[in-house]
Amino acid sequence: MLQINIHEAKTHLSALVDKAAKGESFIIAKAGKPMVTVVPFSASQKLQQRVGFLKGRIKIPDNFDAVMQAEITSMFEGAE
């Protein structure tokens, strides 16, 4: 795999991104030490969804709507 120094990568970023988009992965190194691998983004890659990540780990009580109902009502309608 091609390894490019960070200075050269900054200088030729546009061309390198074009190559990566065509499937040519490469490594960006700093002082000869590999730092990151640049790989093409695939449209089929799914982004992780945060919604539902606790499904099955927590339980919402059946009376959730009634919890603190009086306090919440007083905040919106004024204290009685």
Approximate helicity band: 25-40%
Percentage of residues in strands: 15-25%
The CA-CA distance between the termini, in Å, is 72 Å
Spatial shape: elongated
Can you offer a commentary on this structure?
The structure is a single chain. The protein has helices at 6-11, 13-21, 69-77, and strands spanning 2-5, 26-30, 33-38. The chain has 80 residues and is of the alpha+beta class. The protein has a domain at 2-38: YefM-like fold (3-Layer(aba) Sandwich). A three-stranded mixed β-sheet has the order 1-2-3. The termini are far apart.
Short description:
30% of the residues lie in helices and 19% in strands. With 80 residues, the chain is of the alpha+beta class.
Name some characteristics of this structure:
80 residues; alpha+beta; YefM-like fold; three-stranded mixed sheet; 19% strand
What's the arrangement of secondary structure elements?
Elements: E1 2-5, H1 6-11, H2 13-21, E2 26-30, E3 33-38, H3 69-77
